[in-house]
Every structure is written in C-alpha cells, then in structure tokens.
Design goal:
binds zinc ion, alpha+beta, 4 helices, single chain, Nucleoside Triphosphate Pyrophosphohydrolase, about 240 residues
Length: about 240
C-alpha cells in the first residue's frame, strides 16, 4: 500500500460517504510539496475535469462526482477541526455527516459557498464575456460572483453584473448548477438579457469586458466548467 511511502505527517486518511450512504470511499490527502514516489504524478482536479469533459479521459467519468465530493470534504475536514464557537476539538457526529462540539453542542456541516454565474445576451445576439485578473492570459468568461447573506440569487446576479461591468439585466433565468469544490463553491448558472448601461469595468477584478458574436469568440474557459457549458449551449443553439 502506498500509504507506507509517506510519513504520518505527510499523509492524512479520511472517509467520504457517498450521498446515498451506499458506500464509504477511503481517501488520502497528501501535504503540499510532498515528494511523490517514483511512478506517481499529481493531476490537478480541475485539469482532470477539463480532460473528461473534452472527451479525453472518459475512464474517470463515473468517478468525477466522487472526486469532487472528496475534494470538498477533505477541505472541510481540515477547516472544522475545532469548534467555531468555543474552540474545543470537534467530534464526528454519529448519525449524520457533520461534526459536533462535545462542549457546547455546536454542529457544523460541510460548508458550501453559493456563487452565481451568468450568461448575458444582447439584442444583437452577442454574449458578454470578461477578462478577470485571476484568469490565465487572454481567457474571457462569464460574470460570476459570490452570494451575499440576505439576497435572492437573482439579486446576486443583478448586483454582480452592475458592480463588475456597470450593466443592467432583465429576464434572469436559472439554467443549471455545478459543484465546484475549489474549495467549497456551488456554482449556480443563469442566463439573462441585457437591459441597459454601457460597459464599465470595475478595474478591481474585471480588466476588460466586451460583446462577442458567436463566430468570433475569444479564448474560453476550459471544458468541465459550468462557464464553458453555458457558453457552448448558447454558441451551438
Ligand atoms: Zn463548542
């Protein structure tokens, strides 16, 4: 077993129950910068997903949701060792997948951070795509942003679009969602129509935003992301 190739400080064992509780998947996480044994290689999970959705790694297809879930759970286990209220060490709950503080009783579930992502089309059948400072060079994608407490998701979409590019939107419609465990997002995908305003990039996150026709699209995010699937759905419609 490869576990023996690492010192106890380098490797962490955890279990990921499938959501329907039909099985428990044994998982190991390695510390960053650990030297891998001969013949091993590390593959970023995002790259694995991109390969799969591009049709190059079909062998991982059944495992992908489990891999995403395990990534999410691994990060949550690292972040929830101690109670957020009193600081005591949490214990795993017996009857559900959560951690419970033995001192104050606080229960913590795997944290999920909702974020919206939105495809905006104008009256000329053009799509709004933006270059975020965090993106690789020349990649343009959809506007996205995190949900704020107290909002409806539609409010989040309107706010993020106005904050990042100064536009107003209408006819906001839910399309689909995607688990995005980097570290714990749920991406909620919408489409909307442009309703007003001129593009004004916030300069903080968004460096450039433009309308693109479907036959003249820039470099797009990788397959495997909800961003790409929302763009492709429009492009091929
Ligand atoms: Zn506590």
């Amino acid at each position: 077993m490869a576990r023996a190739d690492f010192s106890p400080k380098e490797i962490h064992y955890f279990e990921t129950p499938l959501i329907d509780r039909s099985a428990i998947i044994p998982c190991f996480s390695l510390n960053k910068n650990v030297l891998l044994p001969s013949g091993w290689r590390s593959v970023p999970v995002r790259a694995l997903a991109a390969e799969f959705f591009a049709g190059h790694e079909l062998s991982v297809a059944p495992a992908l949701p489990v891999i995403f879930r395990a990534c999410h759970i691994a990060q949550w286990l690292l972040d929830s060792v101690f109670c957020g209220s009193c600081g005591a060490k949490n214990e795993m709950s017996k009857h559900e997948f959560s951690r419970k503080c033995p001192v104050c009783g606080r229960i913590e579930y795997p944290r999920v951070s909702p974020a919206i992502i939105i495809r905006i089309i104008n009256a000329n059948d053009e799509i709004l795509l933006a270059h975020d400072k965090k993106f690789s060079e020349n990649i343009y994608s959809l506007i996205a942003g995190f949900y704020e407490a107290g909002e409806r998701l539609e409010d989040t979409a309107e706010r993020e679009v106005f904050e990042e590019v100064g536009l107003r939107i209408k006819n906001i419609r839910y399309i689909s969602s995607q688990s995005w465990p980097f570290p714990n997002s749920l991406m909620i995908g919408f489409s909307a129509d442009y309703s007003g305003g001129n593009i004004r990039c916030d300069g903080v996150e968004i460096e450039d935003a433009r309308w693109f026709k479907r036959d003249n699209l820039p470099n797009l995010p990788a397959y495997g992301s909800i961003a790409r699937s929302l763009i492709e759905e429009w492009r091929t419609s």
